Structures
1.
Amino acid sequence: MEPDRKSNSTKLGDLRNHITEDGSISLESTYFQESFHSRYGAKREAKEKFLYPAEISRFKKKTSINVLDVCLGMGYNSGIILEELNKASIRINWSGLEIDTRPLKIALSSSLFRKSWSPEVLKIIESIYYFNGWEEQASKGEVLWGDARKTLDEIPENIKFDLIFHDGFSPSKCPEVWSEEFLTSLAKRLINGGRLITYSSAAAIRASLKRAGLNIYSLLPVEKQKKQWSSGTLAAKGEVINSPFQGNQRWQALTPMEEEHLLTRAAIPYRDPTRKSTSLEIISQRKIEQQASRMISSSAWKRKWLN
Ligand SMILES: C[S@@+](CC[C@H](N)C(=O)[O-])C[C@H]1O[C@@H](n2cnc3c(N)ncnc32)[C@H](O)[C@@H]1O
């Protein structure tokens, strides 16, 4: 049975699948010319960049948590957290935002993808695709298909999240979901102590999240990406995070180099006050602002810190 729902399947162009280095399947969007995941592994990325910084052990005393997955795609980030919450007997109230139904459809048609989940989690992923969500004793969830800028507002205002995963395509290619306005709306949806987690370490994103009142931490590069200075951002509401993994801490306060990055033109935000701008409009507006800015250039910052 094919589900009936609104989605914009032209947005991503064609989707090509490939196998990543951990053996999990991923996709590439021909329109964005970007892969959904790092080549080191789709599932591995979900684990290292989203699950670990979520630090599920914090929720031991809670019976349920609220999770928002922005840019659900093939569902790896949600799948991986569902597996862990199931093991820990923590209920989940889940919401997902996604513009295109095809990534989940392609994922579910792959035996490799299906085999990588427990039967319980696979059933939930199927229900998200076929029935737009699920409800059972231990958990419930709903996906809202469409532009996340609009669908976020369909989630009742009183619902606040313990965790928000943000996994949009890169800000320079898909700025709609990274604008100051959208990130501020997401930040407002966090409970005290809640975390917004993203693979992006872009200065513009961190600066917007900071202005939205969140404390910013840098995700440390994962084993195979040691040459990078960060593998993402953990933005927390009101909470100072102590070292969670003794001797193996996976995030830290921003280094002086990263703090200084927020003072460069790269930190000028993506603006979308109407929440209807096209990516081209957002990018051109930002370029104009950068050209007029007296902030230091990011190339000067790079010369100082990265050469
Ligand atoms: C990098 S992929 C997400 C990967 C995903 N987290 C996974 O585990 O497979 C980015 C996703 O953002 C979605 N997307 C792009 N623009 C969007 C928008 N305006 N609103 C909602 N989703 C959007 C794309 O359809 C795509 O599935």
2.
Amino acid sequence: MTVRAQRFTAGVLAALAAAALSGCGLMPSMSSVGDADFDAPLPIPPLAESRVEDGVRVFSLTAQEGEMEFIDGHPTATRGFDGDFLGPTIRAERGERVAFEIASELSDVTSVHWHGMHLPAEMDGGPHQPIEPGGTWEPTWTIDQPAATLWYHPHPHGSTEQQVYEGLAGMFLLDDERSRAAELPSAYGVDDVPVIVQDRDIDRDTGEMDHRELHGKGAEVGLLGDTVMANGAVGAFHDVTTDRVRLRLLNGSTARTYAFGFDDRDVALVASDGGLLPEPVIRERVRLSPGERAEIVVEMEPGERAMLRSFAPDLGTVAAGFAAGANDAFDVLELRAADELAPRPAPSWEYEDVGLDEADAVATRRFELSGRKINGASMNMMRIDEVVELGDTEIWELRNDDLSPHNFHVHDVQFEVLSIDGDDPPAELSGRKDTIYLEPHREYRVIMRFEDYADPEVPYMYHCHLILHEDEGLMGQFVVAEP
Ligand SMILES: [Cu+2]
């Protein structure tokens, strides 16, 4: 019996009963709430080392094979950057020139994409910048965007899901004057904590984590694992020493959407994909689809323990939600407050308005997602789908025509949400975004400006970040060209 089967046996009767009651029998809901001992210290990804040469900050990264012991006594084959699983946190300052020496010790083609970064297309690390087995890649660009929590991961066409699932991902933090002056917890790994949340399906008998086995028996959205980990640790806790703690949440899962929160407390959402929001947004739950980030500030009382959970997420769809994880809930990370907590001020900062104005838009493009196609076409690396003129502000209309979930990620730019079904977006979508969850059959209008880096030859991608969908063709290509 596989791990999965054994594990399901325990909860399956209750789940099936619940499913029968709810009238949906597609797939049992998963839950780890209250199951595990949270006795593993949260691993904090190390800050990547760098050196400065001729004014350029140079980082080195190696994609390599690894091994983890997620299940006691059973090693799991994994991959990581400069280690067994995940990668170091890269940190750079706005205005800095950065360069990377990336080496691959993998046996298959990979790439390294800088998710959320504004940079030249040939530095983007998408499917057109492959790194061959044993090969290297040396991108360089100048950081030119507001402070934000970004991330990096492979993007080879057709095998991105597999490589991210195996562990190739890391955070990329950008700082600027405003973020440094902000009243926000900022001690990395202490009160400013990276939290990469991912789900996995691990065989309890062998430790094996081969996602391909699950294609066909997984959900339409891709693999939905029943083991949820934070920075590669299952059942992790973090010791909190301040009365406010900032969590930089990254949904690094390939298919699963989470609704993060605590049982009974509001959190302050302070930043989304593209950086700080206009002002803190108080929420009980924060929904994140694959690829999205959220920075939240959590208030703590001395001596208390608070469990960061993912509650059953509202996917905006009844029809397929059950099979897409809408009924699943997980414990993610336990916060353990010390008996005495150092005070931290209430979150505040100076917001940077980048001046995206609908009146400036010179083009409107429409993208309808269905199955594995955008506007009826599936990804073709030889075809440029859209040509954008350098300097233009554009409105993109996004629509998920299916009843099951999709989201939408655009490379190179951060966009702002103008409206959803004609209404103002909710406050949690008031900041800049590079990835947005598309509730089925709703009209999303977003605005963006393509202000740099014309290159008529090398395209950027836009795609669904449910990575199975992306791998299977739900992706298109645009170039930014001189007028
Ligand atoms: Cu999709």
